[in-house]
Amino acid sequence: MFDVSKRIARGAAVGVPMVGAVLPMGAVVAADPAPPEVPKNHCVTSELTPEQLASGQRSTLTCFTTFAEALASRGIHVGEEVQPAGLSTEVILSVSTLAAVHFDGNNGGGASLLVYGDCTGGGISLDSSWDNRISSTRHAACGTIKHFDSTSYSGTQENTRGLYGNTFDLTTLNDRVGSAKYFA
Ligand SMILES: [Ca+2]
């Protein structure tokens, strides 16, 4: 007799969470109208010509949610899971029009900025979305990259030189780059 009453009590207790389960479902519905906006942290631009540099033009950036989408916008197709630091040197060097990739973080981490062009002295001048953010630079087709403090290719300068495909952390100009020029 005692056991039976315990079972009834447990059965009643089990029924409570079932009724309560309606509330979390209602909470999910209430959250639907405001889904979090996914940031577009992976951007693409083309080098400005020496004439455009001289006229003070700023670079136009097109940004995407994933690194793979940013690459695909210029015809490089990799898996959606590929992150900037994981992009193989083989892929980087297979695209002769990719000058370099800049990163917000050290050693190829964080948001990325792909720069297309050749290596004959063209450059980029950054707007407020990327000014003073670059912390590391990965060389693609261009072996020498000159980073400048100001957006008009002047002020303190830091150059990176080396093997194509290598990534360099900036020191003096970490989080200070306003413009850059690309050379062979
Ligand atoms: Ca940074």
Descriptive terms for the model:
single chain; 5 helices; 184 residues; Gamma-B Crystallin, domain 1; alpha+beta; binds calcium ion; globular; disordered N terminus; four-stranded antiparallel β-sheet; six-stranded mixed β-sheet; 26% strand; 2 domains
CATH architecture of the largest domain: Sandwich
Instruction: State the order of secondary-structure elements, H for helix, E for strand.
Output: HHEHEHHEEEEEEEE
CATH superfamily of the largest domain: Crystallins
Over all CA atoms, what is the radius of gyration? 26 Å
Q: Could you tell me the mean pLDDT? A: 86
Shape: globular
| SS-based class | alpha+beta
Helix content: 25-40%
Spans of at least 5 consecutive residues with low confidence: 1-21
* Quaternary structure type: single chain
CATH class of the largest domain: Mainly Beta
The strand order across the widest sheet is: 2-1-4-3-6-9
Question: How does this structure look, described?
Answer:
The structure is a single chain. The chain is an alpha+beta fold and 184 residues long. Helix content is 25%, strand content 26%. It has helices spanning 2-20, 22-31, 50-54, 67-72, 89-94, and strands spanning 42-46, 62-64, 98-103, 112-116, 120-125, 136-139, 144-148, 157-161, 167-169, 179-183. The strands form two sheets. The chain has a six-stranded mixed beta sheet. A four-stranded antiparallel beta sheet has the order 5-10-7-8, with no helix packed on it. 29% of the residues are buried.
